[in-house]
Amino acid sequence: MLADYRQGKPIKVTREDGFEAWFRPDWSYESTLRRARGQFNQPIPDERNAKQKLLAALVGTRKLARKTFKDLFTYDMWAIGYCNHHLQSLDELHRLRWTWLPEPAERTYHADPFAYRAADGWHVLAERHTHGQPATIVDVTADKTLLTGCHHSYPYLFTYENQTYMLPETVADRELRLYPLGTLKPITLLQDTVAADPVLFEHHGRWWLLYTGTSQHGAYHLHALYADTPFGPFQRHQKDPLKQDIRSARNGGKPFRLNQNLYRPAQVCSQSYGQALVIHQITELTPTTFHEVAVMKLEPKPPYPDGLHHLVVEEGLILIDGKRLVTDLLFPLRRDQGV
Prior knowledge:
Elements: H1 2-6, E1 11-14, E2 20-23, H2 29-40, H3 50-73, E3 74-83, E4 99-100, E5 108-118, E6 121-130, E7 136-139, E8 144-147, E9 153-160, E10 163-169, E11 175-180, E12 187-191, E13 196-203, E14 206-212, E15 221-227, E16 235-236, E17 243-245, E18 256-258, E19 261-268, E20 276-285, E21 290-298, E22 311-314, E23 317-327, H4 331-337
Parallel strand pairs: 2-17
Antiparallel strand pairs: 1-2, 3-4, 3-23, 5-6, 6-7, 7-8, 9-10, 10-11, 11-12, 13-14, 14-15, 15-16, 15-17, 18-19, 19-20, 20-21, 22-23
């Protein structure tokens, strides 16, 4: 565990019943141990000698210094990339050439893109976020704001009975609401629930709702509910949460089918939030069983080399987003002033 901590690798803890959790090392080795102990309420021995404890303290101090500088003087700038392409195999994702949409303004970005086809062509919906202010949902294609107020992100889109619906993340309200495009009259699906990056899709005659909560002890729980229609009422999967894993639990886009297989993009957050994507093939999903296998990893590339946490595959259109880190020594002042 000490070697993994020094290298910033995720750390595995196994519960007595075999349930595994993968944690991201905190800035100190001791707090990482406390997280793991507290999560499963079982002893995890600390077998370090004095030299190893000193080394861990030095590594932790360096990690804390880096994290503090990053939190204070850098900020994320995400952008949307797209490719007009009919995907035939997963391997093609490594070879696609992306066109990047312009960044809307300084310290303002677009992320989490989803798309639907209208009479005038594709429309891309996304999160628009100015640092220091709540995020909104916008139609990037029409340059139109759809949802404001509390923090809104991840405008997940799907079609049911010829109607397109949007299912955005609204964790600040502790509710999950469905919005028919056109009227935007909300339909409440879940109350008193923190549902980050929710996806809702049909599989074998049931509608499945997958989401994570906020990070718990350095990891994410992947929750699963199901219903006969996308409007509920929903029942919890027998094995909920399906997994707890900083490397692959949190959704990273939209589940899609290719060559009769079902795939789920997920975020890799083992070293930082949204650092890369891993694509899983869901081989089994019933009210009592779940199994998925990681089949591909997508890494960020220039001009956005610092993060990649979203993939949407539609018929003839593929969307991603990418992140670049911006260093600004005046950022704390500008963020507090909302400029």
